[in-house]
Model the fold of this input.
Amino acid sequence: MTNSWNDIKNSDVILIMGGNAAEAHPCGFKWVTEAKANRGAKLIVVDPRFTRSAAVADLYAPLRPGTDIAFLMGVINYLLSNDKIHHDYVKTFTNASYLVKEGYKFEDGLFTGYDASKRDYVDKSNWGYQFDDQGMAKVDETMQSPNSVMSLLKAHAARYTPEMVERICGTPKDKFLKVCELLASTANGERTATSLYALGWTQHTTGAQNIRSMAMIQLLLGNMGMPGGGVNALRGHANVQGITDLALLSTSTPGYLVLPSERETTFADYMKSRAFKPIRPGQTSFWQNYNKFFVSQQKAFFGAAATAENDWAYDYLPKFDTGYDTMKMVDMMAAGQMNGLFCQGLNILMAAPQKDKTRAGLAKLKWLVVIDPLETETARFWENHGEFNNADPKAIQTEVIQLPASVYVEEEGTFTNSSRVIQWHWKAAEGPGESRSDIDIVAGLYSRLKAMYAKGGGAFPDPIRALTWPYSNAASPAPGEILKEINGYALQDLTDPADPSRVLLRAGQQLPTFGMMTADGKTASGCWIYTGVYTEAGNISMRRDASDPTGLGVHPNWGFAWPANRRVLYNRASADASGKPWSERKKYVYWTGARWAGADVPDYAPTVAPERTVGPFIMNPEGVGRLYVGASMREGPFPEHYEPMDAFMANPLHPKVSASPVARIFAADAKSFGTPDKFPIVATTYRLTEHFHYWTKAVHGNAVLQPELFVEMGERLAKAKSIASGDWVEISSQRGAIKAKALVTKRLRPILVDGKPCDVIGLPIHYGFVGLTRKGYGTNIITPSVGDASVNTPEYKAFLVDVKKTTAPAQPAVA
Amino acid sequence: MAVTRRQFMKVSAAGLAASSVGALGFVGAGDALAAGVRPFKLERATETRNTCPYCSVSCGVIVYSLGDKSKNAKSSVIHIEGDPDHPVNRGTLCPRGAASLDYVHSPLRLKYPMHRKPGTDKFERVSWDFALDRIATLMKEDRDKNFIAKNRDGVTVNRWLTTGFFATSAQTNEAGYLTYKVMRGLGMLAIETQARI
Done:
C-alpha cells in the first residue's frame, strides 16, 4: 500500500477492482464502510462476479476476466479526451512533459525492438527519454510536442473508446461512463479516490501492467501522496509484505536491492547501473545511496570478512544467470534438474499452477523437507488418495522429512502489514509436542553445516564460515537480537561530517535512520528500509500508542512504518509546487515557510524549501511519478490490453498479437493452452471469507462453515448444461479435469463481448486431500502455467474450461 | 474500575434490595443468582497481544492462556479475540480470525519430526537430531557435488541451483531474515515465497 488501511476513511471515491475486500479482507473493509458512512464516499466495484463487495457498492460494473487494462486505459482515455485531469499536479509531479526518443513507436500490438524468436523486446534503446548535453532529461512544458509523454499517452489511449471498452470487457457503456465520471470527480485536490486491489489484478499474464494502469490514473487525477488516495495492494499472508521486503525472492536482496547477476562481474560493475544520478535539476534520486545500503548489508551478513579489499565480500553472494522463481523451480523439478527442496509453510503442491506437473517434479527430487505447523498435501504428495491424488508410493523414491513448526501464538517477533507497519507480537504459549520455531530450525541446520564444513571442508566454505552469528544463544537466536541486526548499528564511531570531533553515534549503537549509513564499512544493517524500527530508544515495533493527533488515521506512534515511519508515501505531493495544500479539505503535509509540517513524516529533509523543486517521487531519478516507464518494465512503456493465454476471443485491437508477446511460457507447457472451440467458458478462481489458502481446511470452525469444493455458475449456463444446484459437475481445461458441486447463482451472468455472450464460472481454491473438510480436487489441476512477463505470477484469474454434469467422486468424500 | 461478572451480580443484588423490588420480598434473590454464576473463565487467564496470522490486515488479537508464564508452568491457549485497542481492526475479527483458536489446536498440528524413506507408504517418527543431521548431510552432499564456482565464461558465480527453498510468508520478519541469510550464504538462488503466486 502507498497509503494505509486507516487512510481509506479519508477517501471520497473507492474503487475495488482486482480484489474483493469485503470477503477477503473483512476487517480492513471496515474503513471503506467508515468512509461511506462518515463522508458519503462512493464505492465502485468492478468484478466479473457480483461479490459481497459489489453488494454494498454504489456502483457495480461487470467485466470479462482478464480485460482490466482495456477498462483502465478506457478510463485514461476518458480523462484525457474530456480534460478531466488535475493539471497542476500532472505538470508538477509527473513526467507528462518529458520528451521520449524519436525512435519510439507502438504498432500492431508491439512496441519497437521486439524479437519474436526470443519472445522479448531485445532492443529498448528507443524507449528512453531525450537528454541534453548535461545529462538532463528534455522537457516541453507545453506538452504539445508529439514526443512528449502526454502526447504519446493521448495517442496510445485514444483507441480505448467507451465502445471499444464495451466490446473487449463487456462492460455496458453507460456503466463504464459512470465509473469514469465518479473517478474524474476527484481530479481537483478537493476530493480523492483510492484503489484497492489484490490477486484479481496480479494473477494475469498482464498483472504488473494492470497495477501500472491504475497508478497512471491516480497520477492523472492527482491522487498519489494524498490522504484517501494511492494505489493500495491488499496483500495476502499476515507477513507477505515483510517477507517480500526481506527478499525471500530469487533475484532480490533485502530492502528492494537487486541481487548481482553474472553479467556484473565486479562490485564496480554492479554499482554502475545502480547509483541512479538525478536526471532533472535539483532532484534527490534516493538510490544515489545504494552503495551505503548494499555495503551495510554485506557487513550485516559477513561481518569482518567483508572488506574494501574484497569488494565487501561481493563474491560471497551467488550471481544469477536467470530468475529462479516459483514456476521456474517447478519446471526445473519436473525436468529432473533439482535434487533437494524445502517447503517451509508453503504448500507448493496446491499453490503452484498445474498440480500434475508439480507432483511429477516432487517425485523426481532426491529429498524434500517440509517445515509446517500442519499436515499438508505437499508433505504427503507420495500418498495415494484415490482420484484426489493418484500416487503410487512404491514408485516414488523421494526421501521426505517433515518438521513440526510453531505458530504465531507460540513465537514472538514482528509481522509487517499491508500498510507497511511493522508490529511486534508476544508469545502466549509453547507449541504442541516437539514443535520448534522457524528460527530454531534454520539455526539448527546452520550450526550443523558450519561444523561439517569446518571439519570436512567442501565447496566454497568461506561465506558459511564468515556468516555473522552474534546471537547470545546460537541454537536459538532471540527475535529481538535479529530485529536489531535488521535495523542496523554502528561498527565504528560515526562522526559529524561537518565537525569530525563530534561523535554522532558510538560503535555498537543502533542506527536511528538509514541516513547515517556509510559505504566504507562503518555501519551494518540487514535491511535499510527497516532502519528506525529498533534504535537506542528501544524496540519501536512494540509501540502501542493508538493516538491519532490529526484525526486522519495516521497513528504515528503505533509500531513503525517503513520507510522512516512514513504512513503515506510521496506525501510531498499533497501540497502544490509552492508547498501549499491543494485544498484545506485534503491538508496533509505542507510548507510552513520554514519547514514541512503536517500529519506525517515528509518524503525528504523537512527543511528543504519548495523552491528547490525536489520531487516527491524520490526513488525515481526524475523525482516525479511516471506516466511512461521507459525500459523499466518488460512489457513496454505503456500498458496495453492483451488477451489471456487461454483466450476467449482474438484481441480486437491487434488480432495478430492477441496475447502478451512477452508472457513467460515454458517449452514443457507450450501445448497446455486451451482454445474456445473446445473450452468455450471462462473460469476464474477466488478465495472464500471462511477460508485462508490451504490452512483453514485443517481448522474445525472453518471446515464446518465451508466443507467442500463448489463451482459457482450462472443460471443461463446451468440451464444450457442441465445442471442444478447440488449436482456434481466436471470442469475440464486443456490441463486436466476436476469435479465440484454446482452452485447456480445470479451472482454470475453472461457478459456480452464483441456481440456474443461469455459465460463465466468461479472456483474457490481452498480444497485438497488433507484436512477436516471433505476431500476435494485441487483447483490448480486445471489452471494454466504461464507467467506475467515482469514478475512471473501465474494466470489463475482467467482461463478457458468446459463444464458438464457428472457423478460424485468414486471415493467416500470424507477425509 | 474493573468489575467482574460476579461483582456485577452482587452490586445488582444490592441495588435490587434497595429498590421497591426489595420491599416485595425478593431480597437475597440477587445474591443467590450471583453465587450460581461461574467465575468468568478469562478472569484467571493471561492476556498476550499478538497478530492474526492470516491476511495482511494483520488484525491485533488478544490471546488468553492458562498459566502465568512462570518457568515450569505450561501455558495453554483457551481463547482468542480481537484487540479493541488496535487501530486497524478495533476489536473485530473475520470468520478466519475468529476461529483461529481451532488453528492453534488443530488435530492436524504436527508434533514430531517424521521421516518417509524412499518407496515406502508411511512416515516414521524420528528425533530432531536425526532429522537435522540428515537434512544437513543431504544439503552438504548436494551442494558439494553441484556448486558452480565459475560459469562457462570463467566468471565467479558461486551459486547452488540444485536445491531450492520455498519460504513462508507466515513467518516473522526475524525468521525470514535468518532464513535468507543462511540460504543465500550457502549460495542458493532458488528462494521464493508466496508473494509471487
About this structure: Strands of chain B lie at 46-51, 60-66, 76-82, 114-116, 124-125, 148-150, 156-159, 163-166, 191-192. The first helix of chain B runs from residue 5 to 18.
